[in-house]
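Sync notes, pocket subgroup
Present: LS, DG
LS reminded everyone that the earlier model was apo-only. Rerun requested with alpha-D-glucopyranuronic acid included. Inputs:
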Amino acid sequence: TCMMQSAFTQFEPNYDESKVPQFEVPDLLTTFNGEKITKAEQWEDKRRPELLRFFEEEVYGRVPGNLDAFSFKLLEQDDSAVNGKARRKQVAITLEKNKRSLNFNLLLYLPKGSPSAPVFLGYNFHGNHTVTHDPKVLITDAWNENNEALEISNNKATEASRGKRTNRWAIEKMIDAGFGLATIYYGEVDPDKNDFTDGLHALFYKEGQERPETNEWGSIAAWAFGLRCAMDYLENDGDISKVVIFGHSRLGKAALWAGATDNRFAGVISNDSGCGGAALSKRQFGETVGRINHSFPHWFADAFEQYNGKEEQLPADQHQLLALIAPRPLYVASAVEDQWADPKGEFLAAYYASTIYGLYGKAGITTDELPAVDRPIQNTLAYHIRSGGHDVMDYDWEQYISWAKKLFN
Ligand code: GCU
């Protein structure tokens, strides 16, 4: 429609480095009141909480209360998955609030032969059955975005889409390296459409409420909440030692926010998360705040809209989101052809966040010069820019696995 036209021209993306505005990077070590801090304790007592509150109130939105009940049920398990190398479990998780409930299924592959293993936990975009050809994996009946290549139509997944996204999930490589995988279809937690009548939000409404309040959660915060609920299960599953959360793109934004809000996650991997994820908003390169709020009005708190086209007024930027994860291991990854997600902005955010890793004596990114393509920097805070486009490739998983092996295994 003409309305959309004008908003899109208003937020025309810039891909020219020389047109990136001059801006001051909000300082990690100066509080909103101007107080300078120098130590990890001051970061934890003063600066970290106020930054967390900013992202909660003005970016992703606050979760309005706690669940009334949480339960889970093992649906099935089998010892002969992944060519006999892994055990598969499928677990139904039920969340209850205000006499309403929501169910989502967790698919787990765990390496056999080790008493407890670290796992990667990550949402998938179209259903657990798409990440593997395994015929036993249950097909989701939640709302699904149509996708011709994946053979999903009428907003429902069927047998036809089984195994269609195996390219994004190097499961056998994880298992061979001693890691497990836990994955969930994100649409079971909150369907990815601008409709607040369904999914997690609806459980929390007061009588007569139809959408979240201005400072309350959008879908990214709801997906992050779902990851924390999955963690409530995983920390009680004796087969699992540590949980590293992973997410691609919009689900990378959710993984970062989950990692920032819950320190039970031992590490975080952001794959091409871009605007509202790892990329600095103030660069206004590729996707911008105004553009993302226009295209995906349900992702962030409504309060975030005050910064549409006004990035210079943001009192904090995404390097400060990354810093909330410190000193836990964090991997930020970009792809060179994914300019929409601003690889350089993702890199610089990791570089600036390194200040806080330094407070804890952990190594981060020590140069502000973007590394060469396919030349990872793997410290506690890691970064790579891969050749190719917006995707998750074996190359990415190979890096995450080798890095995680050093840190978690
Ligand atoms: C769109 C959106 C991005 C997002 C991406 C994805 O391109 O603009 O912000 O990361 O979808 O989730 O694949």
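DG: The two ends are 53 Å apart (CA to CA).
LS: Residues 249-250, 274-275, 287, 292, 295, 340 surround alpha-D-glucopyranuronic acid (CB under 6 Å).
Action: DG to write up.
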